[in-house]
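Progress against Task 2.4 (sequence-to-structure conversion) is shown through the following example record, which the project officer requested during the mid-term review.
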Amino acid sequence: MKTNLSFNLNPEQLEIVTHSGGPQLVVAGPGSGKTRVIVERIIHLIGQGLKPSEILCLTFSEKAAEEMKERLEKITDVSDMHISTFHSFCYDVLGDNVLDSGIGIGSGIMSRSSALVWALKNIDTFGFEHIELGNNTVNVIEALIDGISTFKDELITPEELSDYLEKKFKKQVELVEDVEQYDYLQKLSDLLKIYIKHQDYLKKSKLIDFDEMITSTIALFEKKPNVLARYHNKFKYLLVDEFQDNNFAQLKLVKLLSPEGNITVVGDDDQSIYRFQGAYVANFKHFEESFDNVTMRYLSENYRSSQNIVNLASQLLQNVPQRQPKQLFTNNEQGQKIVVARCNHDMSEVEFVVNKIKELVGTNIFRRDRSERPLSYRDFAVLSRRRIDGKKFAQALNAYGIPATFVGEANIFNSSTGRDLLAYLDIASNPTESGLAIIRILKNSGISDQNIARINQVAKRRKRNSSSSSDFVYDVLMDLNVPDLDQLDELFEIQKQFQELTNLPHQNTVSQTIFQIMMSLTDLYKSATLSDSLADRKKQVILKELYNLSLEFESQNKNGTLSEFIDYLKLLGEFDVELEENMEIRDAIQVSTIHQSKGKEYPIVFITDLAQGKLPLRYQAKKFYVPNDLAKGLLKAEDEKSLALQEERRLLYVAMTRAENQLYLVFPSKYAQNIRNAKPSEFLQEIDFENNPLVELIDFTGTTQETLLQEQDKITILQQDLQSKATKFVNQMQLESAIARIADLARVKYFKQNKTLDGFDTGDLFSVESNRDVEALLVGEKIPLINKENLRLSATKYETYLKCPLQFKFAHVLEVPTPDQPYFNLGTAVHAVAEHLTKMEKEGIKPTPETAFEILEKNWNSDAYRTKKNEQEYYAKAKEMIQFYLNWVSENNNKAIDVEKRFKIDIGGVAVTGSIDRVEQTPSGQYQVIDFKTGGVYETKNSIKEDTQMNVYAMAVEKIYGQLPEKTSLFYLKEGKMLENVIKTDNLERVKAKLDQVTQSILAEDFEARPEKGACFKCAFKSICDFVASD
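Structure tokens generated for the chain above:
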């Protein structure tokens, strides 16, 4: 079969893409077209006769998997192809084989955050004998949890660690001679205690962590060869991306999945920067030793960077011991010299970056797509080794009016949004001792400082006359018996709100309480949806994360109280837990860590704080590591300190190779908090930055002092506070207060422009003529909510839009969280049973009630139900539905040919995806579709003809199997009723035309509300919608 390649390949790429026979190891330099080569390799394999469903592609991150899918979707149909992360693949394997694995994961995934809280909460039960606990408890817990992960990464079980320690401690004489080793082994014995308890907790709670997904899948494959054989039959070829980031366990999984060597792995050992997360530094060597006749190939041409950048980056790696040299090159222009800016002060470093960006923005630059366009803000990246070191750059850029996204700044517990929600939770849980939280809410609600002081004074007087633990702020607020108090109307509203707030925990679960506070009782979430600004998007992320934390808390604490959840959050707040924001803004400077920049590219890159102790960081030994005589992977030739230094060098290499046109390496000669001058990074010295012909050295003496930046910060903070209050007052129609805050904002703006308030006149603010065209008053470009290239629709999404476009926006564009419903868990569990039983049918195994109910038990999540009685009722319904299914199967003469069949079709130029529950073939060869429903019957014989899902499934079947199905049917398991829809071409075309119009409306962002009394009453978003139909 002829290979259909979609773009021109250089000779190296062509060899890799068309490789035949045996395992292939590809070492791909930065900017060498690695992802494109993998895509073309997949297309070539399909061209050679492999089915898309026979190809398995594993990646390191969700982002990489999505990028791979997006690129392939532009070329071929990937609905049957399995492209996922290692963890997602393993989670599916365990879910599909619950009867063989013996692992129940019905309660979900235990994150690292939850593991840290669990360990901190139970620290007194571990019985440590050798680890000293003092004010270092948080650091010790982090080290222990990460230590457990380290041992799991190397597939070392608690039993194996226990046996190892037992043998070691029997050799007392040898240990006494090595005091350091003896001390470490004693600490390992303490680690073993928490390791055992951690595993017991996961099993008892039906939880699984990310490490366990890999290790349990490997254990399943090794113990059950028949299960592994099914995956060998299913996947004929394996591709692995970012191979350098894989740990030892992932390498073992790769070896199990590809015993015949039908595999291509792609990576770059020079870009291995995740050793701290368990990346196995000997991956490439071990791969060569694990397979016979490995073909090693290189991608050496860099398509991203200029010649000077490529050459200087290559020089950086020349001092790496035992590194296999690579001849990287580029045919791009020579480019400008790399600028090394030696600044006299750390704040001068900030000033240099800000000034250079201001100077370059708007200047033309020759792009890699051969066009010439002016630089915009999004073309710049400011990279630092640590997140905390990037903050000063983001603050300075914003202070000077330059938009900048600071990846990682949305810490839940430090954000104003998070603190607001936590204040409400404190009041709901324990109102009489939440004076500080109450005062925060009063200030946010516009209550004057004078009135707050009056309330506090009365509360203090009552406190002096009482032995109660109450601070009496809540009591005073409830009776408002306070002299000279005004703003009474507002205070009465707050009083009523607090009364409702304190009733919530008695009537709701923790997650329901949080949802009510976010969505109904306050404007926390609604106010975060009023604009598409980065600040509001961050607020949404924080609120969603807090809600998700409550769901995770409930999964592990079935009867947990709000007070316990607050304690949980306080424990979690002890750790440095940041959000994965995944937010982009159209035109802003990207300020991030080097790790977060991996896989990205920018025309202009600044790498900052290239000073000793900053990059490379000072070496800190890992608290827990796998001893060499216990390790299962290849032993490292270098010591840990040397390996850490090498990774720091690779980190700088990754940062340098993000740059396309111009690279700036910046460091200060002095930090404000240090007496001594700072030395340039040893990496700069290695490349002889003062004499290197590829480098232009600049000595920059700045005028900006830290105090000036702090003043800018104060102004920015004041501005943000006033903006927040003005918005809140507008939302509440307190227009006089809103106007007062807007006038204050005008003062701030005038001061920022003129550095004085002399000449400021409030009257100028209101001299603006009224204009009905509001859009003409908006400053700047509206940020589109939808990117057509990334948009994915489905039958369910179409149905939501047809009911109410605004509901579609809330659910699928803004992704507003909604509370879990017990029926959703029932539906998920029943669907899982139907899926498993259908797979058994395909393998010729007759399903039985015993097997079906065992699968149900494995997939059942008791934590989704508030009471045992409630759970028993739903469990009985589930069993009844499954019996209906079994009765139907026993009388069904059709042959099941596919289950959960994934598909992708095109409607209106947008990808529509989904999966079909069951595809059957009749004895006469006709196709039929069955979709299982666990809810009530909502379609009729007439309405099903127009049902979006039924018609989309028909279109998908035609694309996949080459002919339209005879019929598509809804099987209502709750009532054992089958509702059939005979497919007719004219009706199908009419539905498709309607969906095409809907697609165009979605792309046009037409999200007008369609309020209907009944629908609005049931809508999950009614609390944040301004268009709810009235009674």
